[in-house]
Amino acid sequence: MIFDTASLREKLRKGSAVAARRAVGAGLALVLAVAPMMTAAPVQAQTLFDLQSQIEAATQALQNDGSVDVKDGSADTPLDPKKAEADDSADGQDEAATDEEGSENRLGLGRREDPSSIERDYTLRTGRAITQYGYRVFRQRPRAPIIAGEISPDYVLGVGDELVVTYRGQTSRTVSVVVNRDGDIVLPEVPPLKANGSTVADLRDRLQRITERSMVGTRVFVTVGSVRLITISVLGEVARPGARELNSYATVVDALGAASGILKSGSLRRVELVRATGERMQIDLYEYLTGASGAATTVLRDGDRIVVPLIGPTVAVDGDVARPAIFEVAPGRNSMSMADALRLSGGPLRPAGNRFMHVSFGSDGVQSVSTTNGRSGTLRQGDILQVFIDRNVVAGTINVEGAVSTPGSRAIDSRGSLKSLLSNLDLLSGSPYLPFAVVQTRDPNTLLPIFAPVDLVGVLNGAEDMTLNSGDRFIVLSAEDIGFLSSPIVSDALSGGVAANCPAIAYLNGVVRKTRADSFLSARQFLVQSGTAASAGVSSSCPAIIDQYPALLPLMLENVTAVTGDVRRPGLYPIVKAVPLRLMLNAAGGLGRSADISRVEITRYDASVGAVSTQVRREVLDLTQVSLDAVMVRPGDMVRIATRVTTRERGLVTVSGEVLRPGNYDISRGERLSAVLARAGGLTAEAYPFGAIFTRDRVRVLEQQANRRTADELQKGIVSLLARQAQRSGSGAGMADAMGVMRELVKDLASVEPYGRVVVEADPAVLAARPELDTVLEGGDEISIPKRPNYVLVVGEVLNPGAQQFRSGQHARDYVALAGGYAIDSDEERAFIVLPNGAAQPVDLASWSTSETNVPPGSMIVIPRDLAPFDFLAVASDVTRILSSVALTAAALNSVQN
């Protein structure tokens, strides 16, 4: 590649600047690397030879890091002029970026730019932030325009332009040359050619003619490699005024960007370009901003000046427009038409339905506001045109909500009827409830919103229709919305309880508190009959559509029909008018399998117009003789579907232990124990029917209630009992201890888990001989037949409580003697025996007693503690007896079962 001397010197000069900076950095690095060595080892560095060796070592280390290239014994000075220029350009850009960043911080042009005084004034007057139009566009800080595509053949060459000349033919090579300071280009084998002032096309033609004469069979191609730099000045209201170097293709916009943009105190519409020849050109940058290139794209020449004067008069457009902003008035004028201002702001957001307000100053400086049409009129300096949307109404549409496929606006056709709207059944989706829908419209007299119930079944069948008006709301309820009417939270509100966290429930609660009318009587009675208990403080959420329209809930409850009994979904179902019973039963999920349609009870609440009371009338219908479609149900009625009487008992009976086929057995109503034992295959040879354990759920509940009632009574009598004891003893000593003991006893009694055992006869032979002992079974009963035991339990106040081997013919006192006899605190007069079947009876253990109690195997002899020394614990004796009975029963059950 060939370079002319001047071009090479210029590029090496630029490269040497970068090389000099890097050499200084390398020298500092060498000093920093050598200094520690000299400090740490002064003895080894006494001679110049030693110091030179250390410097060479440091240099080698830096060379390995790539900081200094010492292959030719010099700093990193590139021989390629383009590389040197690129490095210098990069360094220059870094320095410029740092300078510009500092300048913008000082001038308030950073990312968070402070508003100008003009912006602050308009913001204060409009009530919201508004900015000046167009200034950010010229703040892009370009370094130089990027030249892309083909350079025009009319481009005029000058000193510093680079040309790429390519030969093809007998001679093939590519040469890059630069127009030198003499205006010539020097090519091999060709005399110097004058290039300065020539166009690219003219130079190409001359060079082609010379090549044809000197190089036969060779063609030449000329392109511009890089363009020259020019120097222009940017003055006035710019962020960084002064001289700027740009390439010869730069425009006015490029020069403003190189000056970091125009200050907001500067004008965008009165920029002036002054040529080196003295020619002046006015530039309106609004033309460039609105898409017309105009004079803003004029190519600059060396020595041009760009002057940005102070900003001229301004106006503002604010409100519902595409681009609210502050705009500068056109050059030579002090006002702007409203039409031009709206055009600059992008126009209103809507083509119609807008309201225009003109804010202007009077001669006394007081602002005044007037209404204008926005199409005619003039804005003077400081005026504001405000645009507002007059109203947000969509004519010819209704809003569809709730259980629909796509909620939102729907167009009303020419008929404007609900039937035509529902002609497309795809509008209804999910599980819509058709007997009761609502149209929210306006009362024509008061213009207040009202709810109009609609029977969608009749609309779809063509039996009725409703005219819709623009702005109405059509609300379709879902099955979940209807199910909410039977919830505890609604029951709580109807009973006057505390309102929950739901606007609709709070609204209903207020209606209930303010009126005593029977509007919600059917709903109240159903909720009581179905066992939906009201509970204060119920926390539940309302369905979305009911939460959105709180007044909808009382309307639905006023028009409900209650369906109860043997249906799949008993509940409250609102209807608009009388409907066939079949429709109500379908809404309730249909009849159950056990429904008795021969006795369907309908309770009607009749109140004719002008009547002073409501008459209650009940009808019992045989639907086997009457069609479901012939029976009409009205709002407020209650429908009860009876259940057929069945001989099948609910629940199962569990048989376990010593039977041939243990398991769970379903039973019929009135079935007895002997029959179930026979179905279980009878007893085994090891069975002990006298120790049968029979438990029943209903008895367990009764025992638990009795224990709690006893605990409550004991709790109330503790104080008076201890007070009487203190009066008899004359001292309060031991009162606190006694109180603690009593409370523990009461606590134990209340927490005892009963077994629900019932004493029954389970021997099939006895049951066959005495049928009156055969127990009638219930669902949930459990019967366990144990094996025959060979022991007798002796527990309580004996020396060695435990099990003694059963001996035929022995009496109770014999087993007590085998257990070591009585303890010191025993009360043998109150001893009792618990038989294997769960029955208990007292036993006389005195030595002079002539009565002998039979002790069968598996029995339990209980010797209680003597409580006589503690008179104040008389009641505690009863508690102890109860607890002991329960505990001993549990032990007996466990031992017998084992």
Helix-residue proportion: 25-40%
Principal-axis shape equals elongated
What can be said about the biggest beta sheet?
5 strands, mixed
Provide the β-strand percentage band. Answer: 15-25%
Question: Which spans have pLDDT < 50 for at least 5 consecutive residues?
Answer: 1-14, 16-20, 26-53, 58-111, 534-539, 869-873
The structural class is alpha+beta
- Record the strand order, biggest sheet: 7-6-10-8-9
Round the mean pLDDT to the nearest integer and report it.
Answer: 80
What does this structure look like?
The chain is of the alpha+beta class and 898 residues long. A 5-stranded mixed sheet has the order 7-6-10-8-9, with helices on one face. A hairpin with a 5-residue loop joins strand 14 (354-361) and strand 15 (367-372). Helix 1 packs across helix 2 (48-64), helix 19 (697-729) packs antiparallel against helix 20 (735-751) and helix 20 (735-751) packs parallel to helix 23 (874-897). It is elongated. The N and C termini lie far apart (112 Å). 28% of the residues are buried. Residues 1-14, 16-20, 26-53, 58-111, 534-539 and 869-873 have low confidence and may be disordered.
